[in-house]
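Hi P.,

Sorry for the delay on this. The queue was packed all week, but I finally got your sequence through. Input first:
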Amino acid sequence: MPKRSKSETPACRTGRQEVAAASVKSELAQPEQPTIAEIFGPGGALEKCMPEGYEHRPSQLEMAELVEAAFREKRHVIVEAGTGTGKTLAYLIPAIRSGRRVVISTATKSLQEQLFEKDVPFIQKHFAPELKVAVMKGRGNFLCREKVHRMAGQPVLKGLDELDWFQQIHDWEKVTETGDRAELNFLPDDSDLWQRLDARRDACSGSKCAEFNRCFITAMHQRAAEADLIIVNHHLFFADLALKQDDFGSVLPEYGAVVFDEAHEIEDVASEYFGRQISNYRFEELARDAELAVRVTRTGGAGLLRQVTRMRERARSFFEAFPAREGRFPFDQTQRAGFLEQNREAYDALLNALKSLEAGIASLPAKPEELLNIARRGMELRAELNFLFESSEGNFVYWFERRAKGVFVAATPIDVSALLRERLFESFETIVLTSATLAVGGRFDFLKQRLGVDMARERVLESEFDFATQALLYIPAALPDVRDPAFPERAAQEIIRLLEISRGRAFCLFTSYVQMNDQYERVRTRVHFPLLIQGSAPRSALLEKFRNTQGAVLFATSSFWQGVDVRGEQLSCVIVDRLPFAVPSDPIVAARVRALQEDGRNPFAEYQVPEAVLALKQGFGRLIRARSDRGVLAILDNRIQRMQYGKIFLESLPAYATTRDIAAVERFMQKSS
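Then the structure:
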């Protein structure tokens, strides 16, 4: 048994011994294991190890028992557990006790880091010191040592800033244990230097690389192969699942069960990775990497560089043929045929340029691995072009999008439920789905239908917060319908009144950039609070500024509706302009609506309303993050009370105190002061 640390109490040591007895490590196994209640219950092992002020949470105990039973009975479980439940420990400890290698999949890299840097060390310190845990991220998060060594001394750096950043990265490469970009706090988010140095598969020569044994990707895979818990994000998990589907191997080692935290995002992420996509950026990256490969290998010379330049020019001409208007647009078979009829010359020229580049590499007497990778990537892009422009797969919706300088062409599965049923829920004995927002009207029917879950134990846990006293839901009585031309100005007046009452300290959340920008312009000259707006700085920088600016107000759209944690008085009001229905003209939404209609079902009731309910729950979930938090939630869309479907929204929200009287909002906020 491990030595007791100096700061550890005898009670905590006992708690650690109890849980360690149930660890995945066989040498720690003992005949009698503590029950989950003896760990999570009042006076249990967990409470003995927590700092002063810890309170037993019944919902945490209930969730831990549900997850433990799912592992023991080899079944799936769906648990809606709100903020404050302590759900991380409620699934981690049962996962450790299961005796299986378990993958924990989170929504974001920041949540991965929180698990690894906060929750896992706590468990290792107090309960399972022999526990082995690995974090796995996408290859683009890691430095390629070979690229660093090859770039040193090459005339490929642009400007003094890049020279300085490269020198710091060069020095860091010698001392870092992980090679994870998250360690670099000096490199700007928008710097493309990292893209020339990262370990993406596209430019990797694998075991043939001179740095393979010292490679950060190799080390990550080795740690994962030895780990009991593997922490990934949803993007990496479904990228791996899609690779397995296409028989391209896998990224993750073999595992026996999966816990999905923030499971409400699974459908969107799975759709992305089971789909196909190209963009002008992929062609630019191919050209850039090809030029670098020619220079560093001193192979191919001017002739091959001319072929690279021709491919880049053909790609630019092809993508310039797409309409200039920003947004996402349908690109069905008829539209693709029309596009090719008008732009056949540009399309064929791009395909021929790719073939010529591949042929040029094939004709070289010596073929360095770096150039063979370029040829392989060119073949992959030709295959993607062929699929996206000349196929007509029935379960895909085809679309294109122009966003800033990017043009994206994609095919997305209309329904991923069959894929997930076969590849995930029927392939693994235990899948745990948890989030604060999974149920609609207290039921999981929508989630199960969209994800292909046939059999699972289900539970909506009681919240640890007293929403009736901590939060007030305000629905203005006098505002017009959101579709009324008078609504924008009246909404701006209501926002101004609410900001004056809350003294700023608010999120104003919108369902589109157009509405966000319109309201920002209407409000910004009529209040004295510091206003921040999405797009003016990176997301992390905006959040940091909001947290540290007294009376700040943030205007934002969908990316701030979830995954944002601001505790305390700094966030005292969340204002939502309208019910967050997905844009019906979005090609993916329209295709899913059409598929349900063709199946004789009601897409509004079965798809659009449930999606909006979960989105509203996420947006409102920004406000109450601790038992000491208090604040006002305002929804300016009176359809929530006026329309029949509004009842589903209200039934799905926590039991907030509700008012239509602005005076009640003032009284509530005065009590909070």
